[in-house]
């Protein structure tokens, strides 16, 4: 008896290989983007590209995740001066509360 050669018999193996590759790609992407941090209970803030026009901020508070992008527009409104922040040469930021007796400096 002759065996019938099925030309689609190898397609099942290719599908299996493609599925394994897709799962490996998803695992690599999740570990690269640090997505497991999104699944934890902790609240956090992530800032990417600080000080550039491409700056993005991701804030997670409880179950809510908010994404903010930098824009070139300036905000306006009413408020009061709470203090000033200074960036030191080593990268640390120091906050100095405003002195209530002194007028705001510009």
Jot down its keywords.
single chain; 106 residues; alpha+beta; two-stranded antiparallel sheet; 2 helices; transmembrane helix; membrane
Characterize the structure shown.
The protein is an alpha+beta fold. Among the domains are: 9-39; 41-72, no CATH class. It has helices at 9-33, 36-39, and strands at 44-48, 56-61, 64-69, 83-87, 93-97.
Strand order of the largest sheet: 1-2-3
Largest sheet: 3 strands, antiparallel
Overall shape: elongated
The total beta strand count reads 5
Radius of gyration: 27 Å
Q: Specify the structural class.
A: alpha+beta
Helix content: 25-40%
Low-confidence stretches: none
**Number of distinct helices:** 2
Mean pLDDT: 79
- Proportion of strand residues: 25-35%
Amino-to-carboxy terminus distance = 96 Å
> SSE string, helix = H, strand = E?
HHEEEEE
Keywords: Membrane, Transmembrane, Transmembrane helix
Transmembrane segments: 12-33
Organism: Blastopirellula marina
Protein name: DUF2149 domain-containing protein
